[in-house]
Design brief:
15 strands, 2 domains, seven-stranded mixed beta sheet, Rossmann fold
């Protein structure tokens, strides 16, 4: 039996136990019952084992699962019973949070789709200088995340955003927003006071209105970005009634599968069908990021399929308790919409790329480490993953199999959301762009353009009938 401390050992290089136990995350998502960003933030923080998670305890509910069919308070307890959850009243934050408001290890997570309400929430604790603030606007058109070093700095930013209420994001983009926010919180220990961060700085930006998704010209005002994200976006492809093959049931796969189930469960025209391939068993060290699991020793594919069926009772989730070692293991491709590659090594990725290329099936691929990752989308006619991996201009993909430390929950959230967003673009016939994620370093946007149009002699090869 593994020691329970091994739950956090794999993330200890970027989030040591001493800092982890001090960090408090206060999610101000109420009274928004529609947005799901706050729930992702809270259960992600619980998986990582942070010292305190606080919120109003409610949140959007979907299905009958322990994570999404109950209150956020219950969901946090289900993910990690060791994490303290504190219910707070938005009108009495100073009383409910007490000493946490004097600590630099406290993070206020603010969802600013309604800027006026966000200002009102922060105003109740404007006199405290301890916490840092990280805020998002996550809309159907994209995501923008900013970080403020003091509450008063966040208040100044909110004053520039007007008062129009922006619709809440779809599940895939909500994952990207929550992952970007959690990333800066979890990796805060890698940045020293000598870094001298700006009072307010951009963390991440992703817009479906832009051809390259992550381009935000230098000098662009926060208010202009918000106005862009408020504009309607063209209809995107839906996962409802689609059939997916998901190879892998680990960190990234957790979030791509959750996203598919949440979207399928909300659809009126039928759930999604996902066939899950993985021969691994759940270990204690998985629990800091793979939130669908709670029983070490259980086959991952079986545990994931059961958890997804609780989220989306209308979907079909089939476990296959084996590794994919040859194309024959995947079965016939008839009716398959896409293959989701959530594997750890390039040999397996190339096998999946060749299978998808031969059968004319879209491949969605992702990889992560503790501090980065990438999502690449390969619809029929686009450059294939095999050529991307061999391309001299492409950086080596991130993978937890290639580095000493495993991925963490935030990098999986970001990349899983990007993979689903790219798949939805492909299903709508749009032009797909690959996106990378850098969790550390000085940048205006932790998302960046990853090579897409590499030389590929296979892109014109006809699909086999």
């Amino acid at each position: 039996m593994e020691d329970t401390r091994s739950r956090y050992d794999a993330q200890s290089r970027v989030l040591d136990d001493e800092l982890r136990s001090r960090i408090a995350v206060v999610d101000l998502s109420y009274p928004d019952e529609e947005g799901i960003v706050g729930r992702f933030v809270q259960i992600g923080a619980a998986a990582a084992g942070l010292g305190l998670v606080a919120g109003d305890g409610a949140g959007r509910r979907v299905g009958g699962s322990r994570l999404f069919g109950s209150s956020c308070a219950r969901a946090v307890g289900a993910v990690n019973a060791d994490v303290r959850y504190r219910r707070v009243d938005p009108q009495n934050l100073d009383l409910d949070l007490g000493r946490a408001l004097r600590s630099r290890d406290t993070w206020i997570v603010l969802h600013a789709n309604d800027p006026s309400r966000a200002r009102e929430e922060l105003a109740t604790i404007a006199g405290f200088d301890g916490p840092r603030v990280i805020m998002d606007i996550a809309s159907p058109a994209g995501v923008a995340v900013w970080r403020a070093e003091r509450i008063r700095d966040a208040m100044d930013l909110l004053e520039t955003l007007g008062s129009d209420v922006i619709p809440t994001a779809s599940v895939d983009l909500a994952m990207v927003a929550a992952g970007l926010e959690l990333n800066d919180i979890l990796l805060s220990g890698l940045h020293t006071e000598d870094d001298d961060p700006p009072a307010v700085g951009s963390v991440g930006f992703y817009s479906l209105h832009r051809a390259r998704l992550v381009d935000a010209p230098v000098g662009t005002r926060f208010a202009d970005i918000v106005a862009e994200l408020a504009r309607p976006v063209e209809a995107r492809g839906s996962l409802a009634s689609r059939r997916l093959l998901q190879v892998g049931a680990g960190g990234i796969a957790t979030w791509t599968a959750i996203g598919a189930a949440l979207e399928g469960g909300a659809a009126l025209d039928g759930g999604v069908a996902v066939r899950i391939f993985d021969a691994d068993e759940v270990s204690v060290s998985n629990l800091n990021r793979q939130i669908l699991f709670d029983t070490p020793g259980e086959p991952k594919a079986r545990a994931m399929a059961r958890a997804l069926a609780e989220i989306d009772p209308w979907g079909l989730y089939e476990p296959v308790e084996q590794f994919v070692q040859s194309p024959d293991d995947l079965g016939e491709p008839d009716g398959v919409t896409a293959v989701v590659s959530a594997v750890d090594d390039d040999e397996a990725r190339v096998l999946l790329a060749r299978h998808c290329r031969e059968h004319g099936v879209c491949l969605v691929n992702g990889g992560t480490s503790a501090t980065g990752g990438q999502a690449t989308i390969h619809p029929v006619g686009a450059a294939c993953l095999e050529c991307l991996l061999q391309g001299k201009t492409a950086p080596r993909p991130e993978s937890c199999a290639l580095v000493a430390e495993q991925s963490i929950v935030s990098s999986n959230l970001v990349v899983g959301g990007l993979m689903l967003a790219g798949l939805r673009t492909a299903l709508a016939g749009g032009r797909c762009q690959n996106v990378g994620f850098s969790g550390t370093g000085e940048c205006r946007n932790r998302l960046y353009k990853y090579p897409t149009n590499v030389a590929c002699p296979h892109r014109l090869a006809p699909a086999r009938a």
